[in-house]
Amino acid sequence: MTTAPAVTGKNKLPKYVRQRSWGAYQYKRDVPKHLRVKAGKATVYHALGTTFMEMVKNLPTIDQQVVTYFASLEAENSRTRTLAIVKSHFGEQAAQQLDAGQLNTNLIAGLWDLAGRLEEEVEPDVYSNLLGASVPVEIITLQTAFDLYGAYKDADQDKKLKNALSKVQADLKASIGAVKLKEVALADLRREDALLYRNYLLARISPNSVSRYINVVRAVVNHAIQERGIVAINPFHNLKVKGAGQSAKDRLPLSAEEAEGGLVTMGSQEDHQAIYLTLWDTGARLNEVTGIVVDDIDLQNRSLSIRPNSIRALKTASSERLIPLSSRAVKALTNLCFGKEGDDPVFPRYGRPNGNTAASAAMMKKLRKQITDPKKSLHSLRHKKKDDLRNVGCPEEISKVILGHSSQEAATRYGAGYRLEVLREWMEKSYQ
């Protein structure tokens, strides 16, 4: 839900709020220029009440409704745009009645009148919907599935994910065609379509890359099936890719000597040293470490909370975790936290979207002076931690918790999880 708009302007009223000459408060907000034809108006108005306290109470709800309305106008679907226009002119109940096909004579007459008034302002499909007092049945397409998945994953706030989803959609369009991507119902897609997509990719990229792209499409379709209750079999499920698996590009773990040598190459830069030590001793992912803020570190308990924040999201739900810190990692991080507020990034140079990419480039340039094997990188520290835990007999489930791997065991999804000291015991055994 959106927060109330900031206080600005005359009489300290919040943004978009004005007081009428008779004392009542009104919400007034201009429709973005590119949406005015779809909305059928240039400005939206809403009553906020006759007293200041009523206005304060109603403003957040009204502002959220308007933001949602603008978002609905962005949709490519004439059905959604028609419902948004009806909601704007006649209210939520009228839009729901139109959507359900349960209209009374007054609403039908109102829609006819609205169609006449907006004939020159709205596109033909919307005009036809209003004149016919009906909207098309919603069809969940593969394109719709990507929209749903992107919204669920907050892709608009994650440039890397947004670009990845766009790339997959472009490949789908090239392989199975725009019609099957944007117009054919998801339930009507067939295994042959999935095979076309797979074979199109195999002709261009490596089998392992093909598997990764197929995994994305499978996740997108599964999300839509579950979210909208679609009765369908995911045609991308269990799609075999010949040659996928181990490859020459797979990362190898660093040896203890290589890890020590890598630390030396970080030189005197405090942030590079602290990032490297934290990666080494926790096995965390680079973006998890570069994106931490001061409040994520508990110096007293010597622990690190890896959780979503304003800097970066996490790869999976299981990535969110509380893990112990080694004494040397605590020392390195303490120096970088000094004098900062709780929501400040620990690593200012890299505490930003895609900051992990910049950190990787800078640190790998140093690491390559010591380690030239292309199959070994900063991520190899994570593989090293996995091996170190295994070599000291750490139970697999505890290892998964420490590294933020997902678990398929039902029993592990209940309760509060392993105590920090249990994790610390195994972490300390694995330090080398």
From TrEMBL:
<dbReference type="InterPro" id="IPR011010">
    <property type="entry name" value="DNA_brk_join_enz"/>
</dbReference>
<dbReference type="InterPro" id="IPR044068">
    <property type="entry name" value="CB"/>
</dbReference>
<dbReference type="InterPro" id="IPR025269">
    <property type="entry name" value="SAM-like_dom"/>
</dbReference>
<keyword id="KW-0229">DNA integration</keyword>
<keyword id="KW-0238">DNA-binding</keyword>
<dbReference type="Pfam" id="PF00589">
    <property type="entry name" value="Phage_integrase"/>
</dbReference>
<dbReference type="Pfam" id="PF13102">
    <property type="entry name" value="Phage_int_SAM_5"/>
</dbReference>
<dbReference type="GO" id="GO:0006310">
    <property type="term" value="P:DNA recombination"/>
</dbReference>
<feature type="domain" description="Tyr recombinase">
    <location>
        <begin position="249"/>
        <end position="428"/>
    </location>
</feature>
<dbReference type="GO" id="GO:0003677">
    <property type="term" value="F:DNA binding"/>
</dbReference>
<dbReference type="InterPro" id="IPR013762">
    <property type="entry name" value="Integrase-like_cat_sf"/>
</dbReference>
<feature type="domain" description="Core-binding (CB)">
    <location>
        <begin position="140"/>
        <end position="225"/>
    </location>
</feature>
<dbReference type="InterPro" id="IPR002104">
    <property type="entry name" value="Integrase_catalytic"/>
</dbReference>
<comment type="similarity">
    <text>Belongs to the 'phage' integrase family.</text>
</comment>
<keyword id="KW-0233">DNA recombination</keyword>
<dbReference type="InterPro" id="IPR050808">
    <property type="entry name" value="Phage_Integrase"/>
</dbReference>
<dbReference type="InterPro" id="IPR010998">
    <property type="entry name" value="Integrase_recombinase_N"/>
</dbReference>
<dbReference type="GO" id="GO:0015074">
    <property type="term" value="P:DNA integration"/>
</dbReference>
<protein>
    <recommendedName>
        <fullName>Tyr recombinase domain-containing protein</fullName>
    </recommendedName>
</protein>
